Amino acid sequence: MKVKNICCIGAGYVGGPTMSVIAQKCPEINVTVVDLNEKRIAAWNDEDVDNIPIYEPGLSAVVADARGRNLFFSTDVDEAIDKADMIFISVNTPTKTYGIGKGMAADLKWIELCARQIARVATSDKIVVEKSTLPVRTAQALKNILDNTGNGVNFQILSNPEFLAEGTAVDDLLKPDRVLIGGDLDTEKGKDAMQALVDIYAHWVPQANILTTNVWSSELSKLTANAFLAQRVSSINAMSELCEVTGADVNEVAKAVGMDSRIGPKFLKASVGFGGSCFQKDILNLVYIAKSFGLNEVADYWEQVILMNDHQKRRFAANIVKTLYNTVSGKKISMLGWAFKKDTNDTREAASIYVADYLLNEQAEIVVYDPKVTEEQIYADLDYLGSRPDEENRKLVKVVNTSKEACNEAHAIAVMTEWDEFVEIDWQTVYENMLKPAFLFDGRKLLDKHKMKDLGFKFYAIGN
Ligand SMILES: NC(=O)C1=CN([C@@H]2O[C@H](COP(=O)(O)OP(=O)(O)OC[C@H]3O[C@@H](n4cnc5c(N)ncnc54)[C@H](O)[C@@H]3O)[C@@H](O)[C@H]2O)C=CC1
Ligand SMILES: O=C(O)[C@H]1O[C@H](OP(=O)(O)OP(=O)(O)OC[C@H]2O[C@@H](n3ccc(=O)[nH]c3=O)[C@H](O)[C@@H]2O)[C@H](O)[C@@H](O)[C@@H]1O
Question: Where is the UDP-glucose/GDP-mannose dehydrogenase C-terminal domain (predicted)?
Fold first, then answer.
């Protein structure tokens, strides 16, 4: 079959960019992205394409190209479901904060709501695509809901997990290492549904990079990929602590290790710990799944990746306190970068939030500068941790618009994100305007150690 109308439920970091690229590359298909969040949809429809709700390099140009032609953003979920031949579910699947599996399992309530809504509205056959990251075997639950509460139409369920990384979403979508499609390989209808999705991606992705598997392999591969990636970060971060006590330099170790072609150079950058909305939640989900099958050794193995990450964030903050003579009470500490990585405005699970929280509990004053994150978001992130009431946060946390403003008269500076502009800062002037001794903590191993020391800073980098 040829797909003519696509509906995507969820206009977030995945649904928005993914559907924009599909619409750009497949001008003959109408793509409607729907969301319950009216503000978000209004922003996607903003006349000025630079005001779309997600910052990703290159995204506004893609949206400008397709929006209004065959790309639409709407809050009318029912209408978009009704019209579509293929429905992507791209809603959030965060860690559960209540009940059984609290703090570990994925919360599937938004997925289930989507399934029930599709079942209620659909009066013609639909291909339903899992785009969200889901526990292995969710497709079975989706099928049960759709078949038991639907109007007797045929539903084919596919799994098509997304591997884009924020900050490089458009490039990742245009040139994916692979596109993974899982489906029912045993029936003609299943195979046809898979082919329909393969045909969409084949508009711009070479056939050799489109991988088809059974649905469970596809669901589990997504969790596995994120677990492996996060594991590499925790592995190098574990080594960073050993480097600090032995005089080895973690960047040199990473380079030497990564040149082994079996290991490879990517994802070996030591840091204050990985952040982002997915690594932690997906590994916790994997741990929960393993435990629920009684596979305790498997669960413990993967849980260690998270424990190491928590340790890294904590020890970075603790090192600041220890270095500043064991007290930061009343001291001004500047944080450069708040988002969980550069080139994004996303702050979910950013290491900076945990470091700030630790320092606030030690009664430090925090000044934050991030080129893409709003003041409102930074306060919301701190409130979320619940360590401080609103009013207190606002007294102790200042958000400024330039790195210069952030650094003036600071006791210490912590570089949290790898924004390129932090390398370009006039560090000589920063040093002159800091309280002495001037402490600089480089959480991303971004800055030249020797240069910073020559300028007069007391310089501490993760992994030396
Ligand atoms: N953020 C990322 O880089 C990646 C995320 N993923 C996965 O993709 C999924 C979505 O993630 P994000 O886009 O980051 O989440 P998000 O939170 O940015 O977007 C999800 C959107 O779904 C909407 N929504 C929820 N329930 C709805 C419903 N019943 N009807 C209509 N709209 C509804 C929400 O209002 C929200 O705008 C998650 O499962 C995540 O694990 C996968 C790869 C990359
Ligand atoms: O499922 C998801 O949400 C996505 O999760 C990650 O993408 P993302 O979290 O957007 O960004 P990454 O580039 O993976 O970075 C994650 C965190 O790890 C940190 N990191 C990354 C690499 C590294 O070498 N060191 C390191 O500390 C980053 O600074 C960041 O805090 C994966 O890379 C994507 O493939 C996946 O689709």
Answer: 334-449
- Residue 267 CA, ligand 2 centroid: distance in Å: 8
Domain that holds residue 431: 279-461
297-320 burial by CB neighbour count: b if 16+ within 10 A, else e? eebeebbebbebbebbbebbbebb
Does 233 map to a domain?
Answer: no
Q: Is the CB of 163 under 6 A from ligand 2?
A: yes
Identify whether residues 198 and 104 lie together within a single domain: yes
* Cα separation values, 412 from 31, 319, 331, 359, 363, Å: 49, 12, 8, 12, 14
Is 278 among the residues known to form the active site?
yes
- Strand, coil or helix: 290: helix
- Confidence at residue 115, expressed as pLDDT on a 0 to 100 scale: 98
Question: Residue 415 has which token pair?
Answer: 């570089």
DSSP state of 349: T
CA diameter of the chain: 74
Mean pLDDT by 10 residues, the chain (464 residues): 96 98 98 98 97 95 98 98 98 97 97 98 97 97 95 97 97 98 97 98 98 98 98 98 97 98 98 98 98 98 98 98 97 98 95 96 96 94 72 83 96 97 97 97 96 98 95
Beta strand ranges found along 160-225 (DSSP E): 179-183, 210-214
On the CB side of 256, how many CA atoms lie within 13 Å of its CA? 6
Round to whole Å and give the CA distance between 16 and 63.
9
* CA of 26 relative to ligand 1 center, distance in Å: 23
What's the CA gap between 124 and 308, in Å, rounded? 49
Number of domains, the chain: 2
- In this structure, the answer to whether residues 291 and 191 fall within a common structural domain is no
Q: 156 forms bridges with which residues in the sheet?
A: 127
- As given in the structure block, the two tokens for residue 369 are 């500068």
15 is in an annotated binding site: yes
**Coil, strand, or helix at residue 67?**
strand
Residue 240 lies in a domain: no
Q: Are residues 454 and 318 in the same domain?
A: yes
Q: Is the separation of the CB atoms in 315 and 140 below 8 Å?
A: no
ipTM of this complex prediction, to 2 decimal places: 0.99
186 and 39 in a common domain: yes
Contact (CB, 8 A) for 438 and 431: yes
Atom of ligand 2 nearest to the CA of 350: 31
Task: Give the predicted TM-score (pTM) of the model.
Answer: 0.96
Q: Which 3 state secondary structure label does DSSP give 333?
A: strand
Is 26 a known ligand-binding residue? no
